Hints:
By secondary structure, this protein is α/β, with parallel strands linked by helices.
Amino acid sequence: MVSIILPTYNGKRYIQGSIESVLAQTYQDWELIVIDDHSEDGTGKIVQGYADKDSRIKLYRNEENLRLPASLNKGFSLSKGKYLTWTSDDNLFKENAIGRFVQTLEKDHDIGLVFSAMEIIDARGDVIGHTPPVQDLGEIHYKNIVRASFMYTRAVYEKVGDYDVDRFLVEDHDYWLRIAREFTITYIAEPLYVYRTHPGSLTETRNRQMQEAKIALLKDELRSEMLSDGIRAGIYRELAIAAFSIDRYGMMKDHVEHIKELRGDISTLPMKVRCAYKMGERPTALLKKIYRGIKRR
Length: 297
């Protein structure tokens, strides 16, 4: 059986579609555990309507808002499946997703985590792109290449444990890193999941917080003694980009210097970061201020 955890907070707008995508799976041996994180918009009522009709769907409500990592931990503590995954109230599974993941894990028992490409849609449901193909699994050390389309085994859960409540906003990437240290991971190039981007999503509303959390996570990853120079350079690259995005130019400069030491050049950095490094903090800050003013018009 597959346990699917669906944490939700005020997810009334899209949650029906998310649940329907689970019901439509070609693989039907699953349980859907919905953790309502103290919603105030009637989300629980919608979910209860589905639970009343299908015993595989179970609803639990937090007495207070606990945020995503704690809600995930509650859901997985209640789960019974051999295979585990979680989804969001605004995203969708392709109808063959669960079956393809199970097939992959059943075929090779050395694999602890399987993940796939994703289709990206907008608020209306129109397809606006796809995630780039993963060429190197080593990128997991500095990029969240797993993203939102994945499945792992109960053995992984028993070994790795809970999601870290202190890693809010990067709790998933932190978990993939912990899995990668202990288990084999693999990638399916076929898009098995539909990721929705819209103004109310966490990615859109908490960008600065996410960048700060990402910086803290990657700095901790740098402490590992098992990293190659190439992976270290990749971590510094992501740190430089994150620092630039939240206007921490001194930090950005330090990370760029590390890249130069490891690679000899900074050509892999985005043009805007390279220009900021060469121009300095004041002219870069002025240009960003002008750009933001134009964008708001």
